[in-house]
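Running this now, will post back.
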Amino acid sequence: MAVSYDLARAAVAERLSASALAHSERVAQTAGELAERFGVDVERARLAGLLHDWHRELGAAELVARAREAGIPVTGVDEDVPYLLHGPLARVDLPQALPGVPDDVCEAIGAHTYGTVPMSPLAMVVYIADVIEPGRTYSGVERLRERVADASLEELFLDTYAASLKHIVKRRRPMHPETLRVWNAIVASDGR
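Update: finished.
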């Protein structure tokens, strides 16, 4: 890889608050552990985990405006919850900001907010790592962490995605159209 973890960490440290940087480092560590468990490239998983919140702290108006400039479709849900755009926008911006970041790393970063169809193994690892990293304390996170030992990557992703959907519904947040598309694809491939 042309972009080292250390170079990426220095770039992230310049962009994010201390708490957001700590979260990104925990996601990188968790992604590396998941990658090792599920046979995914560990260094790419760590890099994607570290960079996943590249645009996390951009303001709402800037996220929407920059997404439109980048040609990313902006839905009504994105306008209501602009934070969702930080993943797709990072996917577009990172190759210019840090030349040499592999395409699959950028794709995994782009998919970590609401997913995509299909989800690559690397994207699933990053998504799961973001949800179960050690700083997360929500109800049900321990059950997901326990599933790492006995579930396949696809089963763990399905459980993690379902937990995210339950959280959205419980908080009465709008559901992004891509979230519904991803969920429908997951259950269609699950065979249930």
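The mean pLDDT is 95. More later if anyone needs it.
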